[in-house]
Amino acid sequence: MTATEVEVRQLPYVMAFNEAVRQCMREDENIFCAGEDIGAFGGVFGTFGGLQKEFGERRVVDTPISEQAIVGLGVGAAVMGLRPIVDLMFMDFMCVAMDQIVNQAAKLKYMFGGTARIPLTITCGGGAGLSAAAQHSQSLEALLCHIPGLKVVVPSSPYDMKGLMVSCIREDNPTVMVKHKRMLGVSGPVPEELYAIPLGVANIVRPGTDVTVVAYGRMVSEAMLAAEQLAEEGVECEIVDPRTLQPLDSATIVASARKTNRVVVVHEAVRFGGIGAEIAAQIQEEAFDYLDAPVGRIGAPFSPVPFSPVLEAIYIPNAARIADGIRATFGRPARSV
Amino acid sequence: MELTDDTLRDLHRRMVRIRLFEEAAGRLAEANKLPGFLHLYVGEEAVAAGVCVALTDEDQITSTHRGHGHLVAKGGDFNRMMAELMAKSTGYCKGKGGSMHISDLELGMLGANGIVGAGTPIAVGAGFANKYRDNGKVAAAFFGDGATNIGAFHEAANMACALKLPVVFVCENNEYGEFTPRHKTMAITDIVDRAVGYGMPSVMVDGMDAVAVYEAAVEAVARARAGAGPSLIEAKTYRYYNHHGVQNLGLKYRPDAEVERWKERDAINGIQARMAEAGVMTPDQAEAVWAEIRADIDAAIKFADESPTPDPSMLLVDVYSQNVEAL
Lengths: 337, 327
What we know:
The complex is a heterodimer of chains A (337) and B (327). Chain A is of the alpha/beta class and 337 residues long. Chain A has 2 domains: 8-189, Rossmann fold (3-Layer(aba) Sandwich), CATH 3.40.50; 203-329, 3-Layer(aba) Sandwich (Rossmann fold), CATH 3.40.50.920. Helix content of chain A is 38%, strand content 20%. Chain A has helices spanning 3-7, 13-27, 51-59, 67-79, 98-105, 108-111, 141-145, 158-170, 219-232, 250-260, 275-287, 309-315, 319-329; strands spanning 10-12, 31-35, 60-62, 83-90, 121-126, 151-153, 175-180, 187-189, 203-206, 211-215, 237-241, 244-246, 263-270, 296-300. In chain A, strand 6, helix 8 (158-170) and strand 7 form a beta-alpha-beta unit. The longest helix of chain A has 15 residues, at 13-27. Chain A starts with a helix and ends in an 8-residue tail after the last helix. With 327 residues, chain B is α/β, with parallel strands linked by helices. Chain B has a single domain, classed as Rossmann fold. Chain B has a 5-stranded parallel beta sheet, sandwiched between helices. In chain B, a hairpin with a 2-residue loop joins strand 4 and strand 5 (180-181). In chain B, helix 1 crosses helix 11 and helix 4 packs across helix 11. The mean pLDDT of chain B is 95.
């Protein structure tokens, strides 16, 4: 580790989010936050902790449990030129607000002939692993990616969380920021100064030569573990984290596929109809002649997220399953049972 | 507030503008000159006019799928409206929104809306922005009786009251949710009964009387502007034409006698009689207003007719905003 790396402060994912919001709010009076329990309580996961204390009840607003009205509040305020951050607590709850997200936020600009700007950030906690069962554990990002007008952001590290959240807030379009609930306590290097990571630019988390693994959110760390196993078997994985699913940095993914000739796409969401299917389709369109194996897809089985820790552990893709998926692209047998 | 002669003339003018625009749109639809759906506001003019005269140009409104009347009442431009209905590039939405998404943000008209009830949370957001900026502006949400059966309305009404926002909820109770009479879809007769559940003051007015609507709106707007929170106005009104379009689609879901009873109480006839009696506007002067607006409509139809359709290159434009500030 070099001296510069040592000096970079370590911050948990949750505080990287919090710091992005805090620093942006300090520099732009048009930013406000609204959601359930985000004020005095600081949000159910502490994501908004201390913000009301610093910015007051005017700018950090506790709302009723009314997801449609929470997002509608954001849409209306955004049309009027404010820069709202509205929190839906759990990603599952966005289903309650789907009209405001899909039919209003995403479409007003286009329907109004371009006159509207919707600088709205919708934040929510996604992902399984807390035995929170079927209504508090979903990864529903594919639903959002299907809607023209929305941007969908899925950070995989504290560093990315801060930089991507800053971009979400500054973005003039509705964005959905998905905070993975099991990553909230994960720490990593996060610069203290305000910085932005542009939306739509993938990150090559681990360079490699033999196979491309496309993974995002918490699956990046599982893919990294899988890559370590494969390295011992003489396979060097290149891990590409798209960081945002809409817009999707297809160019980086395709370039990596053309280089390594093998691809496995990984997500925690249900495999059927997941964003991995879109990525696999794009790769076969753009890199068919470069492929030495069919594009592999790792995702959750076609079932609601189970409550039982035993079943949930089977349900969520992990490093062992990713490693087997990678081995399959080389025609090698699975090792996990 | 004293009701001035100018206010009466203003109410009348806005109503005639709505009536003539909508009648013209109906004729164009029957001639197959308008693509898509058309929900006409004819009959309900007093509500849009009464509320919008009580608002300033800087106040905001959200509208419904039956939204032309709201935009006209807020000062909408006939040319751009007619062009939009004809899906022309010179329209308010450049031909990409149509009747159900017609809007003019510069006039504070935050859009007709194809989803019943969906405008109400957006009005709450606009009201929030007004309070946040302490700018003294008010947001009014128009919606129908049917919209009060949908969750968005209840969430919006409750949140506006909980946060004490400058919002006026305006229910156009025209007695039918699309083709189904109100009594089949709710157990109450009056929408104002809902207001108590939110701790919101409410008033029921004759929606065929523009002055009554105006006076109720003045009070509600003043309350909102003063920081005293939202109000609900229920205007009992009626649409003369079908839910969609002009023809009845062969459905006899309303007795003819009922339609005729409401037409006898026509809001424009009412205000003209009132102004004639008070010596504010003679029948001849009223006719001159109609003639002038008819000419504007004819010009708008000509403008729209002669306008180009959207260039195919516009298909993918404005799906996203390009950020003004560089990251």
